[in-house]
Each structure stands twice: as structure tokens, then as C-alpha cells.
Amino acid sequence: MTALYTIWGCYVRWSQRWPALAAFVPFIPLIAAWWFIAWLQIFPPVFLPGPVEVVQTGWDLTYKGILSEYLADSLARLAVGAAAGMAIAIPLGVFIGLNRKAHEFSWPILLFFQAIGDIAWLPILLVWFGFGLTTMTFVIVYTVLFPVVLNTVLGIRSVKPELGRAAQSLGASPARILFEVTLPGALPNIITGLRNGLGYGWRALIAAEIIVGTSGIGFLMFDARRAGSVEEIVVGMIVLGVLWYIVDSWFLAPIERATGQRWGLVTS
Amino acid sequence: MKSLALENLSKTYFDPYRGTQLTAIKDVSLNVKEGDFVAVVGPSGCGKSTILNMIAGFVPVTSGRILVDGREVKGPGPDRGVVFQSHALFPWKTVAENVTFGPKMRGVGKQERAKIAEEYLALAGLSHAADQYPAELSGGMQQRVGVVRALANNPDVLLMDEPFASVDAQTRMTLQEELTRIWEERRPTVVFITHDVSEAVFLANRVVVLSKGLVLEKVEIPLARPRSWERLVEDDKFKALSNQVLQLVRSA
């Protein structure tokens, strides 16, 4: 019994120092089950490789430099597309959120185009821009745009009217109200929009790379299918999941904690 | 702090559902002298909050005039400080930043603002909470910040819209006593909206009873200052005045 307590104590201490460790623990039974099913060989190993083979393949790909190169390509595309998307979406969302007429006019259009999924644009984009970076960037920008615009509008419109009134009777000009009251008030929603937008953008990028790509994680996975390497496909899938976990928990979640949660606007 | 005058004020709203005009305020005239404390009471729907919103400039008047220190009110401005029922503190600013928001908008420098924060937080007994965020404070503390935030901007008139209605009874009495203490020290011109009769009598020099958009009665409150609940709760004059105002409100 005491040995169990000692192990438990160690785990608690270590997981506090390394939160990523605590995030990995839920995967242990999952990996064990995967390993067990692969070991039983219900499916042929070519269809379902075990964890060991996949790790081996991942290591090989890393060693050859392919994985890191493709990963860098994918991340760069996402970063450029997301930055461009945000640069358009946030000002647009602020404008629509502040202006009743603009809201009435643009809302149906926004909803219409939001419904046309990112990938649904690929056929026409391929006709227009061909198999290249422009097509991929367009898809990411498009995907990031809508969640950010819609959430920014929502955030701007959900700032309590008393806060604007309070600022006015403390002598704030309309411009100061925008920067001191409206934007900070909308920030938690804007961050939610970014979170969704980046998540969708990441998925759209992989899809675009599968169809358009010459490099990137999506291309890696699709290319592996051609080569019949299920291990490489699974490596790609794992990379996608791990990477998103890192982006979300190392970048987005801390921002959320430092703003909305700290201010009591969002309950954790 | 300056005087405030309401001249034949009226307010009608258009009700889009019924397609008719709704009269919130029929005809209200009121003079508040410099350094006076006037409470406005009345049953809900009597238009007391509408009056405050018009003085603050949040809603336009239908007819009549509002004069602050002789100047006609056109929209919200820093000459009229407002304390809201929902405190309306900026959640993303610390207590000190909230209190010095008005001075910051006037372009007061950082060092001067630090002094203002220190002075007014001390006035509210909140010096220890300067760097906390509003969400980390209790309801009573939030409302204290709301009061000194308005005061720290040196308004001509302080408008208070049922500021203590949403705190618990114990805290409310403490806040009322603190407000009288601050008023007795600094003598700001105050218009205080409330539905709580004893609160109005306890705080004000004059209680205006509103009914259906008209002034029903103005009651002078000649109670000695400094006032405290300990003294007034058994005071016959306080009881008689409260009773008188209560009868008026109930008949309204």
C-alpha cells in the first residue's frame, strides 16, 4: 500500500512540475489498447501497425529531416494564413459589431459564406490559382476569417452598455471608449474566435495539402498512402494531434487565463 | 461641485409593439443647490431612473431643460459623475485603474494619477485592494469602488442610480454610513435614486417623492449630522419622517 502511495505522490509532484505529463497520462490506456489490438493481429500489421513500429517510423522520418521540414512548411502556411485572416477579420468584426446598418447588411452574407466549407472552395480555387501556395493560403484565410469575424461581432455587441455609459460620463471620447472599453470587453470572444479559427484552419490546411500539396504534413500522409506505409500515415495523425495540443495549451489557453478568466468574464 | 436644475422635464417613449407613445415623465421641475443631497423615491415605474438617465445624458429629453451650473445638458459628460446599480466597473482594469479612469481621460499624468488613486482608495477604505480586479472583490467593495471612481473625477454633480440595491442588508447599512461620512466631509452635489424609503431619509437633505411621472411631494429632512444608523434607528424624528415618506410612496 505504502509503495502505491509513494508512486502516487511522485506522480502528483511531477505532474505539477510538468503539466504535459498529466496530459499524457489519459493516453496510456489508449496506447495500451492499441498495442494490445495490434499484438493480437486481428488486422494484418500492414493495415494496423503497433505503437512500436509507428514510433520507429516517426524516428526515421525525423532523422532523415523530412518530418521537421514538412512540419515547418505546414506551420509556416498556417501562420501566414492565420495572420492574414486575423488582420482582415478583427477590424471587419469590430466594424460590423459597432455599426447596426453594417450588421444588418453583412450578417446574411457572412452566414451564407460560412456555410460554404473551406474545402468546398478547393475545386474553383484550383481552377483560378492552380496547385500552389495561393490556393492553400486562400483556404486558410477563408477558414480563419469566419469564426473570428462572427465571434468578434458577438463580443463587441455583448459588451454591457453600462460600461460604455460609465466611460462616457468619465469623459472618454469615442476613440478612447473603443480602445479602453469595447475592445477589451470583446477580447474573450475574439480569443474564442481565434481558437476556433486556428483549429479549423489547421484542419483545412491538412485537407488542402492532401489535394494541392507538394510538402507539409497533409502531403506526407497522402504520399505515404501511395507508398502503402500505414505507419507514416499514423505518424502524421499523431503529429497533428500533438501539435494542436501544444498550440492550444501553450499559447491560447494561457492568453485566455490572463484575460477573460482573470477579469471574471469567463468562468474557467 | 455645482448646482443642478431641472425645468419642466418630460419624456415620452415610442412603444414599437403597441404603436403608441408612452409617457415616462410628465412634468418635473427640481432645483438642487450646490452641495445639496437630494434623494428621489417612488414606486417602480414612476420614472425615477428615467430622470437620472436624462440628467446623465444617456437618453435625450423630450421637452424641458436640464442645467448643470447654468449650462444645458447635451449628452453625457464628465461634469456629471454616475454611480450605477450594477457598479459598471471595467473588469479588465484594476481597482486603482478604475478609480483613475476619469483623470486618465483628462490627460492627467501617471504620478498624479497614483496620488489620486491613493487618496480616493483611502477614502473608501480600499487601499489594500488597489491592484485587484473587480471580479476579485465582494459586491460591497465593488460598489465602494464605483462611488469613488465617480468622485475621483471631480464632477459638478454626482448621480447615483440605486447604487446599494444589489448588496446584502448589512453591507448596505455600512455603505450608507460611509456615503454620509464622505458627503459630510466633501459636500458634493448628489442626486440619489432609490426605492428604499429609509435609505432616502437616512442619506438626504431632501426627499422627492415621484408618482406617475410627476413630483408628488418634496420632504425636507432636517435630521442632524453626522448621521449613523446606531443613532437614527431609534430616533423618533427619523421614524416620523420615514413614515411620512412611506405613506406618500404607498399612495403614489
Q: How does the overall form of chain B come out from the CA principal axes?
A: globular
Helix count from the secondary structure assignment of chain A? 12
Oligomerization category of the chains in this entry: heterodimer
- Please give the alpha-carbon distance between the first and last residues of chain A: 35 Å
**CATH topology heading of the domain at 54-160 and 186-261 in chain A:** MetI-like fold
CATH class of the largest domain in chain B: Alpha Beta
Annotation, overall tally of beta strands of chain B: 10
In the predicted model, the low-confidence regions of chain A spanning at least 5 consecutive residues are none
Terminal CA distance of chain B reads 32 Å
What is the helical fraction of chain A, as a range of percent? Answer: over 70%
- What profile does the largest beta sheet of chain A have? none
Q: CATH homologous superfamily of the largest domain in chain B?
A: P-loop containing nucleotide triphosphate hydrolases
Largest interface: A-B, 23 and 29 residues
Largest sheet of chain B: 6 strands, mixed
List the uncertain runs of chain B: none
The helix content of chain B, as a percent range, equals: 25-40%
- The 3D shape of chain A can be described as flat
Say what the CATH topology of the largest domain in chain B is: Rossmann fold
- What radius of gyration of chain B results from the CA coordinates? 18 Å
Q: Kindly report the spatial arrangement of strands forming the biggest sheet of chain B.
A: 6-7-8-3-9-10
Based on secondary structure, the structural category of chain B is alpha/beta
Secondary-structure topology with pairs:
The complex is a heterodimer of chains A (268) and B (252).
Chain A: H1 2-17, H2 19-24, H3 27-40, H4 51-64, H5 66-98, H6 100-115, H7 122-129, H8 133-157, H9 161-169, H10 174-212, H11 217-227, H12 230-261
Chain B: E1 4-15, E2 20-32, E3 37-41, H1 48-56, E4 63-68, E5 71-72, E6 80-83, H2 95-99, H3 101-105, H4 110-123, H5 139-151, E7 157-161, H6 169-186, E8 189-193, H7 197-203, E9 206-211, E10 214-220, H8 229-232, H9 236-251
Parallel strand pairs in B: 3-8, 3-9, 6-7, 7-8
Antiparallel strand pairs in B: 1-2, 1-4, 4-5, 9-10
